[in-house]
Structures are given as C-alpha cells and as structure tokens.
Amino acid sequence: xxxxxxxxxxxxxxxxxxxxxxxxxxxxxxxxxxxxxxxxxxxxxxxxxxxxxxxxxxxxxxxxxxxxxxxxxxxxxxxxxxxxxxxxxxxxxxxxxxxxxxxxxxxxxxxxxxxxxxxxxxxxxxxxxxxxxxxxxxxxxxxxxx
Length: 146
Prior knowledge:
single chain, mainly alpha, 7 helices, HTH-type transcriptional regulator MntR, transcription regulation, activator
C-alpha cells in the first residue's frame, strides 16, 4: 500500500494524464509545489514499486496497478469535497480540509461517507433540514458573542 506522500503523487499523475494525456516531472512539481528533484526521486520509487513506468527524459506511464489506485484516490478526493460541500463547509476551507483528512480515513470510512452523500442526494429535504439547524446554531453563536 502506498504511503500518503506516494498517494499524493499517484493522484496528481493520474489527474495530469487524464487532463493532458501525459504527466511531466515539471508539471507534477508545479502542481504539488515541490522541487523537480523531489518528484524525480518519488517517481523512481513509484517505478520500483510498480505503480508506474519511468524512463529518464521520456516521461512516465501509470501501470494498471497505478491507474487503479489513481482512480480510487481521485474518487476519494472528489467524494470528500462533495461531502464537505453538502454539510455546509465554507468553500475556501474545503481543499485544505480534504488534504488534511483524506490520508487518515480508512476505505471503509470513505465508503460510508459515499453512502451518506448518496443519501443526501436522494433526500434533499434532509440537506434543507441540516441547513436550518446550521442557521439556528449560527444565530445562537452570534447572540453569545454580543
């Protein structure tokens, strides 16, 4: 199983390949805000662990194993963003919150969050009830602060 750092790289590589058709070390470095030398080291490790095939100066290709994990990691990230949006987390906090929690949840927890998101999609009145509770709590907090 990949480490959280390896997951970040696999996820980023998967997204780049999906969007552009390829992933270059420079693109990965830019998106992850790390030095290209760090990317090269990690790519070599991912190659060794058979998540991708890397040839110096030629680029990289995800293996079937890497694609499978990459797809699952992107799903996890998008699902957590959707969940946080659904429960009313401020948009400006969502990305950092997802980055902070995604590596610390089991896949079982991710699947249960997926069930909850599906439940909310199928029962929008429950989201409205949640919003009403949130509004009430915010009003109470404002009264306490005054």
